[in-house]
Amino acid sequence: MGGILPFLVVLLAVAFITKVDFFFYLLYALFGIYALGRLWARRSLAAVGLHRQHDDRIFLGETFPVEIELCNRSWLPVLWLRLSDTVPVDLSAGGPFRRVVSLLPRERLRLDYTLVGRRRGYYRIGPLVGQGGDLLGTATYQTRQAEDDFVVVYPKIVALRALSLPSLSPAGNLPSRERLFEDPSRIRGVRDYQPGDSLRRMDWKTSARKGSLQVRRYEPAIALETAMFVNLDGDDYPQVHRFQATELGIVVAASVAVHLVEKRQAIGLVTNGRDPLAQGPRVMPSLPLRKGREHLMRVLDLLARVEVTSEEEDASFLAVLSRKSLGLPWGSTVVVVTAQEVEGLLDALLVLRRRGLAVILVLTCPHHGFALTARRANQIGVQTFQIWTERDLDVWR
Amino acid sequence: MKDRGVGNWWVENLLRPALIAAMMACLATLPVRAMEGFLGGWDGTYFLVFAFLASLEGVLSERALRKRRIAGWGYLASRAAEALILLLLLKLVNYLPLGLDRLVAEARTWSADPFLFINDLDLFTGTVFVMLWTGSLFVGRMVRELDVEEGKASPPPDKTSTEYYLWLTQPSVVRDRQERLDWLGEVFVWGGVVMLLGAAGIHFLISSARVLALPTLLFFALGVALLSQARFSVIHAGWRGQGIPIQQGIARRWLLWAVIFLAGVALVALLLPTEYAMGPVRALLGVLGLIIRMLGWIFLTLYALLVMLLSFLLPIKPPEGLPPPPSLPPAAQPAPGAATALPWLQTLLSALFWIVILAIVGYALFRFVRDRFSWSKEGAKEGWRGRIAAWLRDLWQRWRTWRREVQTSLARRRAERRSVRLPAARRARFFSLRGLPPRELVRYFYLSTARRAAQAGQPRQSGQTPYEYQATLDGRFDDLEPDLSGLTEAFIEARYSPHPVQQEEIETVKPLWQRIKAALRRRRAG
Predict the structure, then answer these.
(1) How does pLDDT run across A259-268, given as a tens digit for each residue?
(2) Is residue A4 less than 8 Å (CB to CB) from chain B?
(3) CA atoms of B444 and B467, how far apart (whole Å)
(4) What DSSP string runs through A171-207?
(5) Each residue's pLDDT tens digit, B100-152
(6) B 386-415 residues with CB below 8 A of A?
(7) Does the beta-carbon distance from B261 to A135 stay under 8 Å?
């Protein structure tokens, strides 16, 4: 129909030359069909409102519906409307969302499709694009949703029960196998007196009842505050294990965070990964030590969003560890999640120990020197775990 | 929600063939009315009815032939037999207005002289009929091919099957059909042109064009309806080809809204005025005349001043005995415009007429300029000033592009001329890179690198893309990898990107080229 305009000009000339009525009628009609058809398509499409509704936070493996509401705000019908929504592959539950609909004047229509959180992350959904056109195909027009939506898929959380974090603080209130300090407010039982026991621990009532001296046994204490340092510098991970090891580190951090918050502990998170919501390229995402579920959701949000840094970015884990651990209170526990031992790691951990922090090292990248690393770490009082698969988390279950 | 079936059965099998046949009948009106005018007394209405029915039969039988997979010579033979039967039928139909007695009487003479079997009327109607019938078959086939055959558009469910592979590698459903739709649009427009010119010719030569008013209007109405349906077929095929779920009843809604829209536009068109007064045109011409007279007066004043100045400097005595110049008759005063005497309704209608015509012409001009000079969207947001500025910028960019292309072309020609004059060794020695524009310079860097790499034993294979060639070179000259990568990127940008290559980019690429060149030279020497 590209030749319609020259044809109209010819028709105009013929109409003026012959001065016959029906040529003018024809001219009006064809021009009207051409111009009004385009106007109709453009106006009706501009009046279509597109809205997408869905949960913005989901857990891994969870399926969630996305509802799209179409609203034709004008009195003109929409002849056809081809909708397509852009969905990340990691969320797609089938093919891409595409539909063709037609809208009556003032009609509202609801469409839906399903997404599934296959991998933790921070995902953009959209743009939602609607395409329409006129009767004769002389033009097509597009409309799109003004703002894109985002979805956070939380990392996998493994239920931990036997997680015991050592602490140097005497004020801890969670039971631990490591009897570094005991909590005098939580009595576990009594035992026979042994020479050297403090008189303060004597349980006089029980001693009188049993006829022999008894002393109280207290629950050992763990940290009140635990800071997790997660290494997401891609250079520190071998290419082969990079994805699996970093994701496992995130799982470890998320699981520990959930466990501790359930025990009403304060947690903090520091990582050298890249937060897509960070304002600057060199901003290290971190969350201070806080208690409560609200803070836990912030931690999980960050763990869901954070990405492995690219090789160009300067994100030395040891520098971040040294800098961000400065403000931790004495006796806190530091959980360091990284790939494997690198030069200077144990030196940095030793510095933390000397500052009065309890340190746990979690290595997520398989390598043969783990035993040696564990031995060396043990020598400086650092407990080491190898978590190379999710099954390895059983040690804490 | 899902509607994977083909559109409405009756739309495809009845409505569209009827539209095509009716359009052909409308086209037949032209020669028939012309012949009626020439012959006088012959009424060709029966022929139009016959043409409609025969065209309808032709379009419908196309489906049957396709279903029975009759093609090639078999198809031609079948169609030839059908045409023969239809022509014989037409011969009989030609006797309808003449009566059965005339047929019997003439039939007796055919055995004596077989040439009498075909008379002039038969020749005329037969020729017109064959043209129309063939045309309807072509159009019908095209429209038929716009539809989607069940099982061809949607992908087969088994993605490991041969059918899926065939579906995946078939030509694009939409592109294929879009070409046919464009072709159909062209046929419609050219058919319309024929109708218009024919009607105008009949208007001037034989009788008033009003006799063709109904068929002409009908032709365009049917054509637009057919195009609308064809458009639906094309996009419907595209949706199905992409496996998009389609809302149920969209075909019905399309038809309904198309009918309402076309009827509404036709109604509005019928209400618009067709008679006009020349008052506005005369007023416009008057203003133009005034402007021309003012310009002429200014020019004459200047001319007189110049002549006066020259006459002071070069006094010339006029020859004696010349007759006095003839005095011009006084200029006729323009008569008061007739439009001022029009009644108010006539003036209003005339004004409406001119507004509509100006709107049509203005819109056509707007589209013409916008399609050809591509006003940018930024300019559109800034209003008319922004548009003009954007248009001027666009013109400037075009001028710069053109100038650059000319410079490149001239430089190439100069280089070719020089290469003809100089022997190869000297040409290489005296080749000046400064004469080349940036884009050509990057290309030269790359091509000379490829030449040197070939001399070093790593020629580019035919069919290798720049990236593939770079990968080959990286494997061979691993120390040159960063430089080769940069040069390849620059070459691809210079070769394929539309935006201009800046001089700063040359400053970046040249060191890469020099390092590669030196390294390749060392390899050759070593």
Answers:
(1) 889 888 889 9
(2) yes
(3) 17
(4) T--S--S--SSEEEEEEEEEEE--TT--GGGB-HHHH
(5) 888 888 888 887 777 778 888 888 899 999 999 999 998 888 887 777 665 55
(6) none
(7) yes
